Amino acid sequence: MPVRFSGATFDLENLPAVTLPGLKVDKVVRPRKLSYGDKLRGLLEEYDKLLVMTVDNVGSKQLGILRKRMRGRARFLFGKNTMIRKVIREYVKETNNGKLMALLDLVKGNSGFVFTKEDVGALRKELIEDKVQCQAKAGATAPDDVWVEPGPTGMEPTQTTFFQSMNIPTRINRGQIDISERVHLIKKDTKIGLSEAQLLSRLGVKPFFYGVKIQSVYDNGDSYDAAVLDLTDDDIASFFYNGLRQVAALSFSIDYPTITIVPHAIFNAYKKMLALGLSLDSYSWDNLALVKEMLANPDAFAAPAAAADAGAAAAPVAEEESEDESSSAAAVNPFGDDSSSEESSSE
Questions:
Q1: Residue 296 has pLDDT above 50, yes or no
Q2: Are both 121 and 40 inside the same structural domain?
């Protein structure tokens, strides 16, 4: 079918093949990328747990030492984020393992993977404890605050203007510059200036310790922040009890019965029974009689309680005054052991 365009006639059925500019007809993939993809696929098949770590300001030598120390226990993998995401997507399509899609959100920044079959909590603690002391680099972000302590610097008096430009108080002592006051030189999470880096270098101070940082954990489809590994059983119990208290408070406020308010409801009901019993003269029970006696004569019950508190406070003082007696008593079980119980029973 002929078509006219810009004064010319074209036959759509017999058009020659056209290669558009920028179009890759025969895309060549380097063997290095293929090998990297096969390696990542093999690791994803073998391991179902991994740590995602960042290696900012960490040298290749430090990583090499860490690899050697973890050999046989963990395997490290670094690479371009785009390549890692592409391999993961292709692997998910091949295996229909949708759990691995959680890894895509974890691949960001200067990161890497640590595949392992060990306990991720213990391994994370061991990884983050490996740090190397380094000098301050201009333009980098300070991980901690840096203070310059007062004292001699070993620098000549001709360099006084260098300190004056940074508002550092100095004095001349025995032909050298001394810093007279403690100065907050670098604040945390701020960029290090060239002058601050030069000053710390001249003073021979290496203020920072750099190492790998574990950001996230992937465990068989579940991904979470690595800070969760720092939680203890007491922390979890505390969170659980706080949640119970909030549920109980909500149930009371909307007057909706739940299992969390059962102890509180029983106690409140018992208090109402005591209040009703106090208004009755012809009816009583043991606990109500005790409450009536305490209300009628509170001083009689306050004196034993005060004496018990005084005895508890005096007990540590008595132990300090008699060290010899306490040391000899330490050799004997104060609660009694099997032999002492047998002797007492025989007596």
A1: yes
A2: yes
